[in-house]
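User: I'm writing a short methods note and want a consistent example. For Glutathione S-transferase family protein, I'll paste the sequence; you return only the structure tokens, no commentary, since I'll be parsing the reply automatically.
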Amino acid sequence: MAKLVLYVGNKNYSSWSLRPWLALEACGVPFEDVVIPFDFPAGNPRFREISPTGRVPVLHHGDVRVWESLSIIEYVAELFPEAVLWPENREDRARARSYSMEMLSGFRALRGACPMNIRRPRKAIALPEGVAADVARIEEIWREAIARSGGPFLFGRFTAADAMFAPVVNRFDVYELVTAAGTLAYMDAVKAHPAFRKWEEAARAEPWIVPEDEA
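Assistant:
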């Protein structure tokens, strides 16, 4: 089998890159990651060389190109069924995919106001309209999933659904958006996962600063 190469943006800021990287790393899928920083006002011209959309993440597998976080996760789940990226139970898989699509397409107020920033010191900011509703819905999803599974992750063990929400864990943490004990316990579980800690260590070592993402 050809090698999987996952191209990602800055690990400190790139929430979209974190999601597939974390899913693959946490589930033991072998791959190489290549960081191309978006330290230019319009991203990085090199993105066009490796991605049809001019954005990251993008996965190269031989001649195959797969872009967009959730598409990459689904492609790899088909390649490596033994990695069990999604829950094994069919109903749980349906819920995990629904939650993940909701994360992918929604929560725009939270995304806009609170960019992912691994290195950011914890500090609250004034929040625009819509952020509180986004936070409340995400907490509802987490409570619902963990009540069904028993935790510590959304479906018991770490799955692609947890990877899809991992950037939110950082946002909730560094912008001090939540106080509920159950929410904080889930966040602690994600932050303590070896794969998340590996990404975090790399992010903290990066030299690049993107002013637009320093909220």
